Amino acid sequence: MKLSQICILSLVLAGAIFVAFASEEGGIIFTKEDAKQTKYLDPSTADVNISFEDAKNKLISENPEVINESVHGELIDDENFGIIWRVSSKTTNGKSIFAGIDASNGEQLFVYDGSKNVQGKDSISKDDALKIAEECIESRVSADKINDIEFEHVNYVEPAADDLPGTYKISYARIIRGIPSLSDGIQVGINAETGEVSSYRKRWSMSEEEIALIDTEPGVTDEKAVEILKEYMSNEPSIGEEKANTVKVISSNLVWKEDDEDKIHLAWWIRFMDSSFAKDATYPASVWIDAHSGEMLLFDYYRD
Amino acid sequence: MDERDGGFIFAGACKSAKYTDLGNAFINNGFDTYFGYKDDVNTLRNARFYSAFFDAATFTDVTVSEAANYAAGEVEDEFGNAADVDNNRFIGNSNLCLRP
């Protein structure tokens, strides 16, 4: 299907709509050109150590299923990973691979390998998946960084399509001064039917220097943070005091969290539900409150 | 709905793919692929998901299923959990590339 033929629509369902539409009759609404222009860098003028050929060779060497002739790449300034080569390719089994290569040192920061995201005949246990993930990390990450990560959770994700396998998604948090980072860490995807690593992602962007200046002892207790949450909800016209008084806290943990301006905060991450959630609801709301100032950093409550 | 020669539907709403009949209606009318969520989805996490999804899916040769995996990773990084956006379903061709 050519790009000019792509039609991307969204439906109005439960009040949410997202439309991306492109056709011969209509103009392209969602295009790469609409994105922040500064994201895309000119390789001929950018000051990077890794060329496209280097990135391509890295992709090929680490992912044998790549078809050499089909590798595409672009140099971007990614908001999470910094300056990277974003590369993709078709694979020998008719799938695709998508990866990010650090443009300063050539490290493969993320890879989503469709060639490994295929159905198999085995049934991998959760314990086996964890073992495979640990082996994957040991083969990719230096020993000092391994000491800085801590297992967070493993989720089994059911197949997203009739022709795809289930996946174990395993997450490790980066620990800085004894406290986990919300954003930094390692994610590994394990094919639950073959045991192969189908995705890997390492984010390591928080500044230890900046965190060194923040007191790790919270000035605001988690009880006080819950009070701040309830007060905020009470004052929100779409929520109100009645619902706020039904807040049930599921967990509260200290984390390092970046705000919209990339400033790092020590924050209470509170997961909660209220009376608007169904009794069997699976996904709670979250709020992040600065553990020193009591400022609400992010209120993740509404559903589409 | 007019018969089409291909296309991709992104239904970014709670339970938009809990059942398959809506998605199949699009497929039966010529669309390649329908994407939806099997259960509830949080507004902010959904917004982060579809931003990352289309960023990846409009890159050459990236399939919609790999773009969805990438986007869920972005959500996990930002919100600490991506279970709701991960609980998605493709009806039709999950191997579709929006930019082959």
Could you give a short description of this structure?
The complex is a heterodimer of chains A (304) and B (100). Chain A has 304 residues and is an alpha+beta fold.
Description of the molecule:
- The complex is a heterodimer of chains A (304) and B (100).
- Helices cover 17% and strands 34% of the residues of chain A.
- Chain A has helices at residues 52-62, 126-140, 143-146, 208-212, 222-235, 241-244, and strands at residues 8-9, 72-78, 82-90, 96-102, 108-113, 149-157, 167-176, 179-191, 197-203, 248-258, 264-273, 285-290, 296-300.
- Chain A is built from six helices and 13 strands.
- Chain A has three domains: 1-34, no CATH class; 39-206, no CATH class; 222-300, Nuclear Transport Factor 2, Chain: A (Roll), CATH 3.10.450.
- The longest helix of chain A is centred in the middle third of the chain and has 15 residues, at 126-140.
- Chain A has 304 residues and is an alpha+beta fold.
- Chain A is globular, with a radius of gyration of 22 Å.
- Chain B is of the alpha+beta class and 100 residues long.
- Chain B has one domain (8-88).
- Helix content of chain B is 43%, strand content 14%.
- Chain B is built from four helices and three strands, in the order βαβαααβ.
- Chain B has a three-stranded mixed beta sheet.
- In chain B, helix 1 links the parallel strand 1 and strand 2 (33-37).
- In chain B, helix 2 (43-57) packs across helix 3.
- Chain B is globular and about 40 Å long.
- The chains are: A alpha+beta (304), B alpha+beta (100).
- At the A-B interface, strand 1, strand 3, strand 4, strand 5 and strand 6 of A face strand 1, helix 2, helix 3, helix 4 and strand 3 of B.
